[in-house]
Amino acid sequence: MQVPKSIGVFVPHRTATSVQVMERLLEACAAAGLNAYEMGKLSLNDPELSHPELLLCLGGDGTMLSAALNASSYGTILGGVNTGHLGFLSACGKEEILPLVQHLASGTYLVETRAMLQVCKFNETGREASRRFYALNELALSRAQTGKMIDVDVELDGKLLNRYHADGILVATPTGSTAYSLSAGGPLMWPTADVMCLTPICPHSLTSRPVVLPDSVEITLRPCERRGRAEESLIFSLDGRNTYPIFLNETLTIRKAPNPIRLLALPGFDYAARLRAKLRW
After folding, report:
1. Average pLDDT value for the chain
2. 85-117 per-position pLDDT tens digit
3. What is the dihedral angle through the alpha carbons of 199, 215, 92, 64, rounded to the nearest 10 degrees?
4. Which of 105, 128, 143, 254 is deepest in the core (most CB within 10 A)?
5. Per-residue pLDDT tens for 210-228?
6. Can you identify the CATH homologous superfamily of domain 117-256?
7. What share of the chain is helix, strand, coil (3-state, %, to 5)?
């Protein structure tokens, strides 16, 4: 790999620990001759900062999820220094600053391509909303009022798969298989596999199980009226961060996004070892 010409460092939560890690990182980059600077916001098209070739996020997986869309849009490599909890997406921990900088300065780092989801919303007349939505981990469809079930028809490339009666429906990427989908009983998927997973949340049927699908398929979710309660609103969320309303007769289509995310990894990265460590196998 080439030595990155510019490195943006993003620290959303300026705790004493994160500020200390950022200072160590910037000092190490300067000593190695790397052009690294703190980014005060996530706008990668800031004319004063230009587009960094590499964006390093200090925090946990949530911090990297918040930066994923901007990074994928501009082809920016996204890397994480874990100062949070799980750190499934991070390239290294805060104790590995010096090895990280050494690999960046020598161009011996790795870049792993991960798929994202593109979500389109259509109204009752079939007209698409003015914006499209993106997620690195998953899309979740549920009722706005917790504790209420939903009925939703799920179609694959226009053909009905099933009508689910459940607390909700998840569509997860392989990267997101270790997040919400795993908690809902979904399978672990290798992060570079060309698949997606449809996972019902607490389904009201023992035969409603997660289904692994090729990522070439288009998934359509059609919320249905349940027992005359048409007034109850539904929501869909992306990576557990951004939430939007959806009503009966509106639909969502989910497919593999055209722009993947490019994640930073260090030589010797072993996903199996990460699973053992994070899941305590």
Report:
1. 91
2. 778 999 999 999 999 999 999 999 999 999 999
3. -70
4. 254
5. 999 999 999 999 998 766 5
6. Probable inorganic polyphosphate/atp-NAD kinase; domain 2 (2.60.200.30)
7. 20, 35, 45
Beta bridge partners of 39: 10
What dotted CATH number matches 7-115+260-279? Answer: 3.40.50.10330
Distances (CA, A) of 218 to 90, 152, 215: 29, 16, 8
Q: Using CA atoms, how far apart are residues 274 and 206, in angstroms rounded to an integer?
A: 32
Domain boundaries, the chain: 7-115+260-279, 117-256
Q: Which of the 8 DSSP states describes residue 175?
A: G
Structure tokens at 88: 């499934």
pLDDT band of residue 43 (cuts 50, 70, 90) is low
For the entire predicted model, the pTM comes to: 0.91
Q: Active-site residues: which are they?
A: 61
